[in-house]
């Protein structure tokens, strides 16, 4: 036992690797190969940026294109400045062609809008991200996640235009774009430009209707129903029920305008409230005048027409107008209520400059042109202003001028002075001063004339006073007495009718027709005894014939007595025999 404890084991170093190391080496090689294979065959990683990641869940939310799964969200986190949400998504391999500059992505979830309800299939499955591929050749892996689905692909045939508006509620994304009531496009986006203080709307008009968008088209809101109460009366326009519910925007070329050339994509247009606003917006060149009225301007509002013989030549800009006036009350009490009007050159036929228009109006005012208030609608009480010709001619003041002489003129001007002297100067050496309208607060004043509306109101009040003084109570009392007499007369008539009814029902009255019939029969038999063929008739006829023969026999005797009254006592002289006439 002691010997055994005294032995020392011999240690020998191994000069070669153990075969056991083959297993971990192979495992590491397989791991490296798997990492390489996975990295090489996995799809690209894309980054999506959005302001709100509602409904997006890491490891669950799918990315689809045409309802086919092509990727999955891996992570959802805030950006470094905490202002945005960064979404990392791993795409399936082989779909790199779908990721380019024209591709668009958005979240699909239940939505209720003007076009109806969409995304109901996500109530159970959850929200997902839809990818709409583009056709650009440049790859892209960083996208902004859209709030709503795009109306049309970026490469869709058509044209996109931008509308400018001051109304933030004029249009909404998805509203239809209408041409003659037919939907030819859609509102794609809306954005408020804070620096310029207006809204921008992007519209897409699909082909082949994009050819209708030309240089001279105008866009206006499709409200469905429009109510216009003005000096022209009440006007109501009612569109289709679909337009009334969904709204939208119309576009067309104004009547009489050429269509113009087709516009390029992203062209800008103004969005008008209605068609009337389009026409009003065409007249941007005008001369402003100030009118003072001594009568009430109740019913005169901005936008009322300024007319001449029924032709509109301008617009009421402001009623009343007290800007740039030191003492408005003093002006109103002493001069009248000021009204600002615009005479618009574009409403007049022909090319007329503003300077020429001002000269023509000043000449017309000098010869009696005045502004008068007129009633545009008895229903609404709206007023408008009309320019009428009166007999109030304004005489220009005469000023004395020094007559130029030929000696004072330059040699080149002698001919002009000689020709201009005669028409300019009268025999007294005075000439009329150039006529010019008076000014107030920097505006030219156009004279006014009374309209007679106050006189009409006074006459109406006088008529109402006369009506009020009528003896209405006496007339009503007499009417009541007349009605009582009429009622009494009706009762007497009713009693008379009852008496007649009893008389008709009497047996004697009912027997009267039978007695009359019997009397007529007896009269008929009596007349039958004197009819042709009866004995009485034959005797009477024979007697009449005998009397006729007797009268014929007495005719010669009567003729003889007529010629010789004593022929009944003495023989009458016989007439001489006729003697033949002698022959020639």
TrEMBL record:
Residues 476-503 form a coiled coil. The lineage of its organism: Bacteria, Pseudomonadati, Pseudomonadota, Gammaproteobacteria, Chromatiales. One of its GO terms (cellular component) is plasma membrane. This is Intermembrane transport protein PqiB. Its main location: membrane. Keywords: Cell inner membrane, Cell membrane, Coiled coil, Membrane, Transmembrane, Transmembrane helix. The keyword Cell inner membrane applies. The keyword Cell membrane applies. PANTHER family: INTERMEMBRANE TRANSPORT PROTEIN PQIB, INTERMEMBRANE TRANSPORT PROTEIN PQIB-RELATED. It comes from Rheinheimera mesophila. Residues 43-134, 158-218, 287-388 form the Mce/MlaD domain. The chain crosses the membrane at residues 20-37. It comes from the Bacteria. It is found in: Cell inner membrane.
């Amino acid at each position: 036992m002691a010997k055994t404890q005294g032995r020392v084991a011999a240690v020998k170093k191994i000069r070669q690797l153990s075969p056991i190391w083959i297993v971990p080496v192979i495992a590491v090689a397989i791991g490296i190969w798997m990492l390489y294979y996975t990295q090489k065959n996995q799809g690209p990683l894309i980054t999506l940026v959005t302001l709100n990641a509602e409904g997006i869940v890491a490891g669950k939310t799918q990315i689809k294109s045409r309802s086919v799964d092509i990727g999955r969200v891996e992570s959802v986190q805030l950006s470094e400045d905490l202002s945005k949400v960064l979404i990392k998504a791993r795409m399936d391999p082989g779909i790199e062609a779908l990721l380019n500059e024209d591709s668009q992505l958005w979240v699909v979830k239940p939505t209720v809008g003007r076009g109806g309800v969409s995304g109901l299939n996500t109530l159970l499955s959850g929200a997902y991200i839809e990818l709409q591929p583009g056709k650009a050749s440049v790859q892209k892996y960083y996208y902004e996640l859209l709030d709503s689905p795009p109306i049309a692909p970026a490469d869709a045939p058509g044209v996109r235009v931008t509308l400018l508006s001051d109304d933030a509620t004029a249009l909404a994304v998805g509203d239809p774009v209408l041409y003659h009531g037919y939907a030819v496009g859609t509102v794609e986006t809306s954005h408020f430009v804070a620096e310029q203080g207006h809204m921008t709307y992007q519209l897409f008009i699909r082909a082949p209707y994009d050819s209708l968008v030309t240089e001279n088209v105008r866009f206006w809101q499709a409200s469905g129903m429009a109510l216009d109460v003005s000096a022209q009366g009440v006007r109501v326009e009612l569109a289709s029920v679909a337009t009334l519910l969904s709204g939208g925007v119309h576009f067309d070329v104004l009547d009489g305008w050429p269509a113009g050339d087709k516009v390029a994509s992203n062209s800008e247009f103004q969005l008008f409230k209605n068609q009337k606003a389009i026409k009003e917006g065409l007249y941007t060149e005008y001369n402003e005048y100030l009118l003072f009225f001594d009568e009430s301007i109740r019913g005169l509002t901005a936008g009322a027409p300024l007319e001449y013989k029924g032709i509109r030549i301008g617009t009421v800009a402001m009623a009343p107008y007290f800007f740039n006036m030191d003492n408005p009350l003093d002006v109103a009490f002493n001069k009248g209520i000021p009204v600002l009007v615009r005479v618009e050159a574009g409403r007049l036929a022909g090319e007329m400059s503003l300077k020429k228009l001002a000269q023509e109006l000043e000449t017309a005012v000098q010869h009696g042109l005045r502004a008068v208030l007129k009633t545009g609608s008895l229903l609404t009480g709206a007023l408008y202003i009309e320019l009428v010709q009166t007999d109030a001619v304004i005489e220009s003041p005469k000023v004395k001028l020094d007559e130029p002489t030929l000696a004072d003129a330059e040699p080149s001007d002698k001919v002009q002075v000689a020709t201009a002297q005669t028409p300019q100067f009268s025999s007294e050496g005075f000439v009329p001063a150039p006529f010019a309208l008076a000014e107030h607060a920097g505006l030219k004043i156009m004279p006014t004339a009374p309209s007679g509306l106050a006189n009409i109101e006074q006459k109406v009040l006088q008529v109402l006073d006369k009506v009020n003084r009528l003896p209405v109570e006496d007339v009503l009392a007499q009417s009541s007495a007349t009605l009582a007499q009429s009622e009494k007369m009706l009762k007497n008539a009713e009693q008379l009718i009852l008496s007649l009814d009893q008389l008709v029902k009497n047996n004697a009255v009912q027997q009267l027709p039978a007695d009359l019939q019997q009397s007529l029969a007896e009269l008929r038999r009596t007349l039958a005894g004197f009819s042709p063929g009866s004995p009485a008739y034959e005797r009477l006829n024979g007697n009449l014939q005998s009397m006729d023969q007797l009268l014929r026999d007495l005719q010669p005797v009567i003729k003889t007595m007529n010629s010789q009254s004593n022929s009944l006592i003495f023989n009458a002289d016989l007439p001489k025999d006729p003697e033949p006439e002698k022959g020639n």
